[in-house]
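Second attempt. The first submission of Recombination endonuclease VII had a stray character pasted in from the spreadsheet, which I only caught after the job came back as garbage. Lesson logged: always re-copy from the clean sequence file. Corrected sequence (217 aa) follows.
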Amino acid sequence: MSHSERAAYRDRHPQCQLCRRRPTAAVDHDAVTGHVRGAVCRSCNSWLGSMEAALRVPERAMQQQAAYLHWKFEADGTAALAHYAGELSYLGLTVKEFAGGLLAVRRLLVVPCVYWTDQAAGPARETEWTKTGPLADAEEAERHHRRLRSACGVAVVVTAFEPDDGVNSPSPRGLVKPFTGSPQHHYGSRRTALDRSGRPPGGGQQGPGGPGLPGRA
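This time the job returned cleanly.
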């Protein structure tokens, strides 16, 4: 689709076809087939990209919100995914199919490594990391993560679950876990907040068939 064709398509669909609240900013399409799915706003386009990214093994670190979906699913199971029924329906997926996709990706991310840095500015592409790993299992990674978290001079610690492909990465890749403890424990208070309000924490908006992803304004 050319630039002019995209502009004409957006003109014919001035309102986002997912949230039905904001003006369209992009023509959304299936990255594999090229099939145009609709015209969506900038926010919905970003979230749809994150949901699709959660179903792929990334070359580097998985997108933050894609990783959130993995940890939320591990914490709450398919009940967590039911909140995204509108987005999944738009993508042509059921909750069961999306859950299966998350599990398939997770089965490929099996090598735990712990990374840390003393650069307090926060992780960036140029951050210099120190790495421990590959480690025997998630329990060993958790022990290293907790020890480094309590060490003086260590600004950021993460555990990364990486593909078993023999690559010795200098920076976190795969599914990154920035917290210690279980996902159930980490997201417990957020689950309570969601149950009380009926929408995800962070101001998720209602889409056609279900609330939006957490954090959508």
